[in-house]
Amino acid sequence: MRRRLHLFSLSLFLIALLYDLVVWGAVPVLDEVGASIAGSARREAPLAATYIALGAPLDEAVPLLQSLGRSRLTAALSESFDRIGEDKTVAMDLVLGPAWNNQHRWIKTMYWAPPGLLLLTFVLWLRRPRPVRTLADR
């Protein structure tokens, strides 16, 4: 098991990345505040901007993923829609700020999961057990 721990971590990384691409890729199609959040992400949050840029084509290609991402974002961020509508510059501050509900907390956790899991995968790959070779085996 320890020999393949880096593969398990890589699997978790890919799952978290796919989740982020689906959810953040639905930001541009949010009715009231999508453009504000996307613009704020381009200015202030390069990781979110990357998720949006890579996830939007994926969500456009599969409408079911787009509706899933939109529903997750609406459930998580609906409390901030009025404030984002009033002041477009605070969008990412509100999205990545203190959590309002469990869905918002989950989106923030998953936002930071891929970079952390990628680093963990790299460390586990470097520390994976390797066979010991002796001079007698030659």
Describe this structure in words.
This protein has 138 residues and is an all-alpha fold. The protein has one domain. It has 7 helices and no strands. Helix 1 packs across helix 4. The two termini are 28 Å apart. The mean pLDDT is 88.
List the helices and strands and how they pair.
Blueprint lengths: L4 H21 L8 H11 L1 H16 L1 H15 L3 H6 L4 H5 L6 H25 L12
Helix pairs in contact: 1-3, 1-4, 1-7, 2-3, 3-4, 4-7
- What structural class is derived from the secondary structure elements? mainly alpha
Q: Categorize the overall geometry.
A: elongated
Number of domains: 1
Task: Write the element-wise H/E pattern from the N-terminal end onward.
Answer: HHHHHHH
Please give the alpha-carbon distance between the first and last residues. Answer: 28 Å
Number of DSSP E strands: 0
Helix content: over 70%
The assembly state of the depicted protein chains is single chain
Largest sheet: none
Uncertain segments are none
* Arithmetic mean of pLDDT: 88
Query: How large is the count of helical segments?
Result: 7
Work out the radius of gyration: 19 Å
The fraction of residues assigned to DSSP E strands is under 5%
Task: List its traits.
mainly alpha, 138 residues
Provide a compact summary of the structure.
This protein has 138 residues and is mainly alpha-helical. The protein is 72% helix and 0% strand.
